[in-house]
Amino acid sequence: MTARGEIWIPTADELRSAADRIAGHIHETPLLTSQTVDTELGCRVSLKSEHLQKAGAFKARGAHNAVFSLSDDDASNGVLTHSSGNHGAALALAARSRGIPAHIVMPANAPQVKKAAVFGYGAEVTECQPTLEARETTVDSLQRSTRGYVVHAYDDRDVICGQSSVGLEIVDQLVHDPPDAVVVPVGGGGLLAGVATALSHLLPNCVVYGAEPTGADDAKRSFDRGLLIPQTAPDTIADGLLTSLGTLTFPLIQRSVEDILLVDDRQIVEAMQLLYTRTKQVVEPSGAVSVAAISAHRHLFEQAHVVAVLSGGNVDLAELPW
């Protein structure tokens, strides 16, 4: 509990408890390296490969922590959410792991590869118009009819604690070679808030940056003004980063993040190509913004050891942007 006016900051013990809770349900993803990438970016880069996570994205961490934190009574009617893809797939997988139903509301224009993943994990999918209002009203309607438990994609304490396990793994994997900086994609902010909070507890000298497309830059504008500014009319190839920061994630980001680094869609595509050609990794646009940010703001990272979080790999191979 927090007093009125205070922000919620999960403790290191809370974050470790979440990591322990999900350990049997998710992958500990590897840190990949490439001398060619290092040379290209002018620093030493470790790639935290969440595109190799279950369901193809870091979202599996928060979804499993949320689902397995529920009491039997709260879980009895299943879970539901709205999602453009990765959170929906992750929640569907977590629900299947616990043996409960999942209802996922998806915008009609969500990538087909992400719809297929949600269906594949056994969830019931309800399509809606591609607006936040339509997504939220459809979830409200489903909640009334199913009485399921709504798991928000990012502005949820259990979800944030689950995502923080990315940061805990980075610390454990690099215990003898700690990074100088970590760059994390930011949309709603659950991953960035979780990783930044974990590192503030365990590796306080490490600088954490968010990475965001210029066509969906609410996090940057909010961060710079110190005021939560909603996303309006986002336009970017990074379809997983279209959402606004949340009331839980924004204060954590303000507290523990150095800055939000912007990149345009051309730079994102170039980062995807670099990863594909030099490391043979298929990373979706939203996941490649961290590498794009290191490239575009290389003066910040010259000769440093930097971890770039590759947040997801759910890209339609028939629709690669090049």
Strand neighbour order, sheet with most strands:
1-2-10-7-8-9
The CATH architecture of the largest domain comes to 3-Layer(aba) Sandwich
Unreliable stretches: none
Helix content: 40-55%
CA radius of gyration: 18 Å
CATH topology of the largest domain: Rossmann fold
Describe this structure in words.
This protein is α/β, with parallel strands linked by helices and 322 residues long. The chain has two domains: 12-58 and 158-314, Rossmann fold (3-Layer(aba) Sandwich); 60-154, Rossmann fold, CATH 3.40.50.1100. The protein is 44% helix and 15% strand. The strands form two sheets. The protein has a six-stranded mixed sheet with strand order 1-2-10-7-8-9, with helices on both faces. The radius of gyration is 18 Å and the shape is globular.
Give keywords:
322 residues; alpha/beta; Rossmann fold; 2 domains; 6-stranded mixed beta sheet; 4-stranded parallel beta sheet; 14 helices; 44% helix; 15% strand; globular
At a glance:
By secondary structure, the chain is α/β, with parallel strands linked by helices.
Detail the topology: elements first, then pairings:
Blueprint: H1 12-22, E1 31-32, H2 35-41, E2 44-49, H3 59-69, H4 72-75, E3 79-82, H5 86-98, E4 102-107, H6 112-120, E5 124-128, H7 132-146, E6 149-150, H8 157-163, H9 165-173, E7 181-185, H10 190-202, E8 207-213, H11 218-225, H12 249-256, E9 259-263, H13 265-279, H14 285-296, E10 305-310
Parallel strand pairs: 2-10, 3-4, 3-6, 4-5, 7-8, 7-10, 8-9
Antiparallel strand pairs: 1-2
